[in-house]
Amino acid sequence: MTGNMGLIVKNSFSQATQVFDRFYLQKLALDTLQEIRIKHLWEGLGKENDAIEKSRKMSLKCKSKLLPNGDTLK
User: Fold this and answer.
1) How many domains does the chain have?
2) Is 74 domain-assigned?
3) Distance in angstroms (rounded) separating the CA atoms of residues 40 and 38
4) Domain presence at residue 8
5) What is the pLDDT of residues 37-52, one digit of tens each?
6) Is there a domain that residue 69 lies in?
7) Are 74 and 48 a contacting pair, CB within 8 Å?
């Protein structure tokens, strides 16, 4: 804990031991992984939108690259 709240807790419960629940840690890890996944998704969408816009300006048809599993980069 940081800031005033951490100081209050430390002073109020000086003999307490901080423990970590494995389910809480697992949820924290999965939430973090989800944030990273979403970040990369938005980056991929941005790159694809930029490529589409560039193609339109040049009057070309934009074709997304396909991965071996059939998905696009986005």
Assistant:
1) 1
2) no
3) 5
4) no
5) 999 989 988 988 898 8
6) no
7) yes
